[in-house]
Amino acid sequence: MQVYLPIAELSVNALLLLGLGGIVGFLSGLFGVGGGFLMTPLLIFIGIPPAVAVGTQANQLVGASVSGVLGHWRRNNVDVKLGLVMLAGGAVGTVLGVWLFGLLQTLGHIDLAIGLSYVFFLGVISSLMLWESVRALLRGRDAAVAKAKMHHHTWLHGLPFKVRFPRSRLYVSVLLPGGIGFVGGVLVAIMGIGGGFMLVPAMIYLLGMPTAMVAGTSLFQIIFTTGIAAFAQATFNHTVDILLALLLLVGGVIGAQFGSRAGTKLRGEQARALLALMVLAVAVKLAVDLVVRPDDLYSVTLPLPV
Question: TM spans, by residue (predicted)?
Answer without folding.
Answer: 12-38, 44-70, 82-104, 110-131, 170-197, 203-230, 242-259, 271-292
